[in-house]
């Protein structure tokens, strides 16, 4: 299916809306002006038709809806007998144009006189506009004037045509129409031109953004300079792209460091294993000494591989949350590490007497606590303390040791993946612990000094959204 172009749609649709709106305004003005003229003249025509032959004033009328404006509209009439002859008014007339107008009107209505009886019509006569309406009357002509009379024996049937000269009003309306049309055309052209310029500029900005994205995507080539736009929306997209580009660059650097560190960490024990294996083969190194080193380095490689596998599974799967007593988990993990700590004469103190229920993935939380304990055993002198406190909204878990503390230059980087501080193992454990905390909508903080280091895990006491995907190890 062929996709529509957004910019074309942005230009075409508003353009049609502008044109149709202007056309609607013009048509609406025509309707309103026509209704105004009819309203202004219809009462005058009706009054003249009802009161022909007598002098009346609207002020004396019983019709309260009659407007004063009808009084200033002069109404004239022509009387035609059954033979089609003009009988009133009779010559001489004051002006020649009255004769021409009367003759022209008589000629127009001669073909279909009944068409003008029911409602008024607008006629163009000698470049003048007239509103006309006719009616049948009985009466007689007296001194050139028609006198309506239905009772007199001398009364005859006459056809009376009433007309109003609306040329001044029509010319005014035509002039307004011309001005309005010019204004509408100019505003329409201006609006469409503005839309065209806007969409063209937006199209240029999008093209520049597209080229910029392509240049970023081409590895091994320098990207174009960051484009600029006068539109805040496009500028926001450019800013987001720049941030994303920096994140991608950082991710690539992390991957490079990962491969470098992983290769180095695997290469060192492999070389040791290879060297001691050759020593056994050529009877240079005693078997007991060689096997101890081979087992130690193999265990080191296994630990690194397990860390990498756990990390990849954690990133590929979504955690499965459930309500658990984190105090019990802390106590269980602490028991698992007591033998390792005892071998180094380190005492583990677990201060978790009160149950603390949180929503968590058990395997991930166990790994987080295990990484903190393992790190503490590596640096502690004699004691590691685990505690768990609960507030209204948070659960606070602390793992502290009495070691020499972390170097100040290492503290900002200890949660970075593959960053190894002094005495570090692989540079994965603490970064993994921080990631697990974030997955639980929490955070992992560290405070370190000469008297030891305290890692603080803060978890919210809120329900998480359960996921169908889970971790399987």
TrEMBL record:
It comes from the Bacteria. SUPFAM superfamilies: ATPase domain of HSP90 chaperone/DNA topoisomerase II/histidine kinase, Homodimeric domain of signal transducing histidine kinase. Its EC number is 2.7.13.3. One of its GO terms (molecular function) is kinase activity. Keywords: Kinase, Membrane, Phosphoprotein, Transferase, Transmembrane, Transmembrane helix, Two-component regulatory system. InterPro entries: HATPase_C_sf, HATPase_dom, His_kinase_dom, HisK_dim/P_dom, HisK_dim/P_sf, Sensor_HK_Regulatory, Sig_transdc_His_kin-like_C. It is an enzyme of class 2 (transferase). Pfam families: HATPase_c, HisKA. The chain crosses the membrane at residues 6-29, 178-197. It catalyses: ATP + protein L-histidine = ADP + protein N-phospho-L-histidine. Residues 261-463 form the Histidine kinase domain. This is histidine kinase. It comes from Catonella massiliensis.
